[in-house]
Amino acid sequence: MTKKRARQAVILDLVAHHVVGSQEELRQLLLGRQMDVTQATLSRDIRDLGIARVGGEDGARYMLPEQVSAHDDKPLLANLLPQLFSRIDGVGELIVLHTVASGAQPIAEAIDQEDFEEVMGTIAGDDTILIVTRSSSARLALTARLLELAGES
Amino acid sequence: MTKKRARQAVILDLVAHHVVGSQEELRQLLLGRQMDVTQATLSRDIRDLGIARVGGEDGARYMLPEQVSAHDDKPLLANLLPQLFSRIDGVGELIVLHTVASGAQPIAEAIDQEDFEEVMGTIAGDDTILIVTRSSSARLALTARLLELAGES
DNA sequence: CGCTATAATGCATAATCATGCATTTAGTGC
DNA sequence: GCACTAAATGCATGATTATGCATTATAGCG
Q1: Band of residue B75 on the pLDDT scale cut at 50, 70, 90
Q2: What gap in Å lies between CA A111 and CA A99, rounded to an integer?
Q3: Where in the sequence of chain A do the CATH 3.30.1360.40 domains occur?
Q4: pLDDT given for residue B84 in this prediction
Q5: Which residues 6+ apart lie within 8 Å of B146 measured at CB?
Q6: Is the pLDDT of residue B73 over 70?
Q7: Span CA (B2) to C1' (D6), Å
Q8: In CATH, which of 3.20.20.300, 1.10.10.10, 3.30.1360.40, 3.40.50.720 is domain B77-150?
Q9: How far is the CA of A18 from the C1' of C13 (A)?
Q10: What is the CATH topology of the domain spanning A3-49?
Q11: What is the average per-residue pLDDT within A16-26?
């Protein structure tokens, strides 16, 4: 069915260039292009096309995958640290980072994902993380970096 | 409120590592971590965190922005062309590309976005696109490329 | 062509998500 | 510690999205 493909193409186009906040809204836009389908069909089209829906201060909106990432600001750690950080300390090549309750696990994983070269490994409890770095100077460097990310610099 | 931040961090973590299909499901996961909130709160958290919801064959799922793009397969043009292409022809430095009804505009925009160096510009009607290339050989090269993208190679 | 199998769609409705308003909880400054 | 202000949350409900089932359109095929 050629109508379906054309419609889905138009949908991609509309979503890419307009702010589409609901399937009903999309339906109206399609009507303007002489395409009349029900919300049910749009729900299926959106699924097929892999279009994402993200909430925003001013209501939700549909976006193409490309747009979602563009809309994304910073890496995970930068998001979490300012929220969860409580204090940091260290000795030798060890850093002890304290977070708010339940914050250690997420932060530790985010640190792991960053793949800091200074880091040998991390162990996280509930609100405390032990970070083993490669050297004393690595510890100092990383501590500074983490403080900065936490917005405490 | 420190509980909110910790919860949101855990949510990011859960969404990153689990397949979360609904807010109610997320609620259950949080319960397992001794965090009890209502769906309403999760709706707000998800908005605040910029988490996206994308549909899939096996139901919808929440994803972090990073994951959405990763989940995305190919650029727009590669998605559209196989769906909308009908035939292509050309002469001199001009290409005339025919698409299914209503397909020209989306395809033309996608071509523009690709920024092909062979292309000087495009003009799209409803089902026909005129592509002006920089030279006769550029025309041949681009024609081949488009045919390939359309899966007609 | 007419017939069949398959895909696409609509309809009605269930499932899920968002939000206004009231209430509770933290955070601050005496 | 107490009063005060702002943030966070729950509750109830409205809005939006997803889906089972029946129907209709489309693509092949003889």
Answers
A1: low
A2: 13
A3: 77-150
A4: 80
A5: B81, B85, B88, B95, B97
A6: no
A7: 15
A8: 3.30.1360.40
A9: 30
A10: Arc Repressor Mutant, subunit A (1.10.10)
A11: 92
